[in-house]
Amino acid sequence: MVDSNTSPPRRTRSAIRETETAVPVRRSRRKADSATTITAAERLSMIETAAYYRAERRGFRSGHEADDWLSAEAEVDAMIAAARGQAAG
Prior knowledge:
Number of strands: 2
Number of domains: 1
Number of helices: 3
Distance between the termini: 58 Å
Largest sheet: 2 strands, antiparallel
Oligomer: single chain
Strand content: 5-15%
Helix content: 55-70%
Shape: elongated
């Protein structure tokens, strides 16, 4: 039986820092236009979503999960790099 009064375990600050390391996307010297960052958790979510849509396009046939993941990771990293390049230029 599950106790409904039990709250989920709290994460420590060091655990949060380890799992949510920020990846800067855009830098600016103006205070009003602060740096936009993507945390490691957000990057992972973006990769998961992109990999899912790749699998969906091929009909979810098994055997290509690693290819889907690696392609999605490269795609997301390229988008992050492009955003950094636009901010610098």
